[in-house]
Amino acid sequence: MEILTDVTIVLVCVGVIAKGATWLVDSASKIAKRLGISELVIGLTILALGTSAPEFAVSILAALKGVGNIAIGNIVGSNIFNLGFILGGTAIIHSLKTSRILIVRDGFFLLFGTFILLFFLWDLTLTKFEGGVLFSLLILYLGYLYVKREPLETKQVMGKMYWWDPLMLIGGLAMVLVGAHFMVESAINLARYMGVSEWVIGATVIAAGTSAPEFATSLAAALRSRYGMSVGNLIGSDIFNLFGVLGVAGILNNITVSLDARMHLVFLSLMVALVLVFMRTGWVVSRREGYILVMIGLVRWINSFI
């Protein structure tokens, strides 16, 4: 009976998150155009920060409780899920256009950060100092986005914004976050019924649950032909997860993880590199490449439970 209840909650949360994401993407796009800000920058910052809130809440709480495998596993698994299932799945629905700015500035920064995290966690511990380094790099990145905008991003046609658009932005974000919260709680219960480890829970079920906002917002953006916002949201969310969430978590408490972390971080590094290659081929992530990313994510998911 408890399993049926949790499954029902998960399904209801999917609908709530999907509706909230529609409001979020529509209102963010209108606000961006009205302020003369490109949708790519909005996706990389506002939407990425907002949709990373579930990861932030789960990982910070886990870090404070000393459950390092869930704190780190959630972020590593979420980033892999974003690039495999979500980016790949969105590309299957419609090929996603990319740009030199997104690859050189944002994609390589994500790859750099992934290598840094792999180096920091090779001894299976993320110290407070290392957490501070990660968070400092995020501040520098955001400062760079603000100070040095590319010409492509400054040429934005002003659009019309209504008074209710900010309210829809806040309401949509609230629906996404509340839905994700209850989805994660139910997903954790389902995973425990299966008797799997904390790392597996963090890197798979919890990661998938906290990635629900990224999936909903990226899918909604792609269906509305806002490809810059769709891809930018995923890359930006992964950047916020890695530098922001783990940075703050590390600052608050030294985090220790199991040996499984090394393998998953190596896998994540290779995944990021592959995505950058796909983004560069013809400046688009094609449907074929989307299928490849989804299959890689699926294989990794199955392997985690073996």
From TrEMBL:
Its main location: membrane. One of its GO terms (cellular component) is plasma membrane. The keyword Membrane applies. Residues 9-146, 166-296 form the Sodium/calcium exchanger membrane region domain. It is a multi-pass membrane protein. Keywords: Membrane, Transmembrane, Transmembrane helix. The chain crosses the membrane at residues 6-25, 37-64, 70-96, 108-125, 131-147, 167-184, 235-255, 261-279. GO terms for molecular function: calcium channel activity; calcium, potassium:sodium antiporter activity. The keyword Oxidoreductase does not apply. It is found in: Membrane. One of its GO terms (biological process) is intracellular calcium ion homeostasis. This is Sodium/calcium exchanger membrane region domain-containing protein. It comes from marine metagenome. The lineage of its organism: unclassified sequences, metagenomes, ecological metagenomes.
